[in-house]
């Protein structure tokens, strides 16, 4: 039996426990954590029992506010998901896909009050699948003046997915067009570099852009992946 089928069977067994023991509602989003505050903090550890999560935030902001959420894995403090510059979307929602396990959130807060909740989707056991996606910059370091592109490999086309990219100062530089041109190769789906666009044009670094560590996130309706790359002088 493949590792993916083993994982699916484990999740099916776990779902039965969640329904009967934890009193979760099937085929619905169930709240597993909620936080309110106005200062930077790390939350207590919470358990994510299934793969699909939803995070919602409501912010009271002013022109000097900044709010970022980072999600970390318990065992090795590995950054799993990140949502930056949320002060620009004070009442927002995002989705992610993670392996079941223990996690915590890190709130970076400047001059705003927040309410944050995390929900999980408990599906009927017969619907369980484990979605696969691999997204990373096509190289770890880009030169100023170069085109930024990503290697994208998924188990299915995510036609509503897109990229957001921030410079080292935390400014949102690009929100890409939706990725709608997918190619199927041996059962996996890819988006070529020349189909990763911003307003119909390649994602191009300016010659005088900020140097250092840039951040990116790939966002779809059911999951998000994030990371960084370096920009250096030509």
Describe it.
Helix content is 8%, strand content 48%. It is mainly beta and 234 residues long. The strands form 5 sheets. Strands 2, 3, 5, 6 and 8 form a 5-stranded antiparallel sheet that branches. The N and C termini lie far apart (50 Å). Residues 1-13 and 126-130 have low confidence and may be disordered.
- Provide the domain count: 2
Report Rg.
Answer: 19 Å
Structural class: mainly beta
Low-confidence stretches: 1-13, 126-130
Strand runs, count: 20
Strand content: over 45%
Annotation field: number of helices: 1
Order of helices and strands: HEEEEEEEEEEEEEEEEEEEE
Q: What gap, in angstroms, lies between the N and C termini? A: 50 Å
CATH fold-level label of the largest domain: Jelly Rolls
Roughly what percent helix?
Answer: under 10%
Shape: globular
- In CATH, what is the class of the largest domain? Mainly Beta
The biggest sheet amounts to:
5 strands, antiparallel
CATH architecture of the largest domain: Sandwich
Q: What oligomeric state best describes the polypeptide chains here?
A: single chain
What do the pLDDT scores average to? 84
What are the salient characteristics of this protein?
234 residues, disordered N terminus, five-stranded mixed β-sheet, 20 strands, mainly beta, 8% helix, 2 domains, Jelly Rolls
